[in-house]
Amino acid sequence: MSKRKTERLLGLVVCLLSTRRYLTAEQIRAAVPGYPEAEELFKRMFERDKEDLRDLGVPLETGVNHPFDEETGYRIRRQAYELPELHLEADEAAVLGLAARVWQRAELAGAAAGALLKLRAAGMDSAAAQQDIEPRLGTPEPAFGPLWEAVRDRRPVTFSYRGAGRSEPGRRELEPWGVVNRKGHWYVAGWDRGRQATRVFRLGRIAGPVKFCGPSGSVKVPAGADVRELVRDWGVPSRDHTAVLRVRSGTGQGLRRDAASVTPAVSPGWDEVTTQFGDVGWFADYIAWFGPDVVVIDPPDLREAVIARLKGVLA
Amino acid sequence: MSALVTSTERLQRLLALVPYVVSRKVVGLEETAAAFEVSQRELVDDLNLLWCVELRSPDPYCPIDLSYEGGEIMVSQAESIGRPLRLAVDEASALLVALRMLTELPGTQDRSALTRLIAKLEAAAGEAASVSAQVAVQVDIHNGEGYADQIRSALDRGRRVHLSYYVPGRDETTERDVDPMRLLVVEGRPYLEGWCLRAEGVRLFRLDRVLALDVLDTPAAPPPEAEHVDVDSGLFRPSESDIHVELELSAEGRWVAEYYPCESIVELADGRVRIVLRTQDTGWVRRLALQLGEDGRVIAPPSLIAQVREVASAALANYAV
Fold this sequence. Notes:
Chain A is an alpha+beta fold. Chain A is about 35% helix and about 25% strand. Chain A has 3 domains: about 5-80, Winged helix-like DNA-binding domain superfamily/Winged helix DNA-binding domain (Arc Repressor Mutant, subunit A), CATH 1.10.10; about 145-235, SH3 type barrels (Roll); about 240-315. Chain A has helices at about 5-20, 25-30, 40-55, 80, 90-100, 110-120, 145-155, 225-235, 255, 280-290, 300-315; strands spanning about 25, 60-65, 75, 135, 155-160, 170-180, 185-190, 195-200, 205-210, 240-250, 260-265, 270-275, 295-300. In chain A, the strands form 3 sheets. A 5-stranded antiparallel β-sheet of chain A has the order 8-7-6-5-9. In chain A, strands 11-12-10-13 form a 4-stranded antiparallel β-sheet, covered by helices on one side. Chain A has a 3-stranded antiparallel β-sheet with strand order 1-3-2. Chain A starts with a helix and ends with a helix. Chain B is an alpha+beta fold. Chain B has 4 domains: about 5-75, Winged helix-like DNA-binding domain superfamily/Winged helix DNA-binding domain (Arc Repressor Mutant, subunit A, Orthogonal Bundle), CATH 1.10.10.10; about 90-135, no CATH class; about 145-235, SH3 type barrels (Roll); about 245-315, Alpha-Beta Plaits (2-Layer Sandwich), CATH 3.30.70. In chain B, about 35% of the residues lie in helices and about 30% in strands. Chain B has a 5-stranded antiparallel β-sheet, covered by helices on one side. Chain B has a 4-stranded antiparallel β-sheet with strand order 13-14-12-15, covered by helices on one side. The termini of chain B are far apart. Chains A and B meet through helix 1, helix 3, helix 4, helix 5 and helix 6 of A and helix 1, helix 3, strand 2, helix 4 and helix 5 of B. Strand 6 (about 170-180) of chain A pairs parallel with strand 6 of chain B.
């Protein structure tokens, strides 16, 4: 950290906020102490300073005071800079404290803390947040950071992806529309340029780094694209098949809970359970979990799938 | 503040510090240092830096005037930085995404406060709020909703609850009395954290596995040794007495490595992986092996290999094949 740089940046912010007119680089150099004499050095330093301020979210405007002015000037409009007046009730401040804890050690934790600090700077007093409820959002997937930036800045990305059951990862180029967390896993939805179709990817299956492959602002999110819907529908078959099962008495609690009907004691020690399911493969996995306690009577393809799993164990 | 704080991070703090004092008129050094998570010495350095800012236009002047005599900070001249900077996109998004998640949570009793706060923040953040609409969090509330409300009520009234709790690994329903401690939402799932009288320890109960829940008239009294689970270091806590189970998975069976916390994952050829799981009870791994079929194979321990084969044979016998 350089104290001189902090002083110079602070001077720059105050100077540009205090002016209504656009100031040229030369006028800024005259007003803000700390810039070097040498022209080249000054230009480079000034460029970096502008970059730093923009990264902080300072709305630096460029323009000219007169149509005849040749050189671009700079200013910060107060209205664009200042956090609008915000008054929070005690109960709102309490849930705000809870919300700020949600990211805890995850990717956006620093951003949440920064927001809270600004709200406190606006006069908000920190209220005691509830202690008996503790919600957390984790971002263990390394792809979250770059994909969040890509969504925020509307930039296309490329990454290597290992689809479910695929032995080799494949290269994907995506225009990301949004990220969604479903049941604890992060997904990104968008337009897959290679497949020319809308696709959803699970962040945990992205292998290696996510790279930007286009400029900021170049991704257009179509009106009406609902990333939540896209991810909700992804990989969830509707439960429109019926299975008839024999379930040993006193077992298969999980199955019975979701069952359409349970007929007790159809044969000694066995109940009959009728239930709805979506995907044969997925449901066969679930049935196999119960081992000798559940037997598929119908449909035949489910029966065969369970038998295949059990034979696979013995193979 | 450490040496790792960059110039821009410090600038960010300074731009918040001035309005923090201005909005409070007079505020103590100690309280302010705590709010900004810096030492008092670092805070005084910040104040001196602000006070020393000089501009020339064309005559030199000091835009910021302040004092901190007697441990009380006052800003008499804040020039143009008397209000905090607007929320950045990341900042607005972090709060809005978290708040919208809270509105989805079962057992949230402050929906009205949440709705009002979201509207206020959206208005204050302006354009910066729009990106947050591209991030969403869905919480799995399958079968858990009613229970979460009951748990919140039990927590508020300090009551013990009775649970019928399903343990899939043993395909067993257990009956337990639990003194609730917190309602957690971790990895998208709601949990009851409580002192389980049967296990004599703090346990987490997934709400989607609760089959029935009654709030009892008995007051909840978790013993002093009942400590909160550290939700930030993961819910799975390995223990000395764990059994190490080694599995080899095909590309089709890789989901296991995503779903269960693994001690180690070794990539093999053709998308296959070898993983090591740690567990107290191998019953569920036996069931897992059955559902994996040829897509997963137990490598160790040998006793588990034998059990898996035995159960698979028994299950196949049901089909008389």
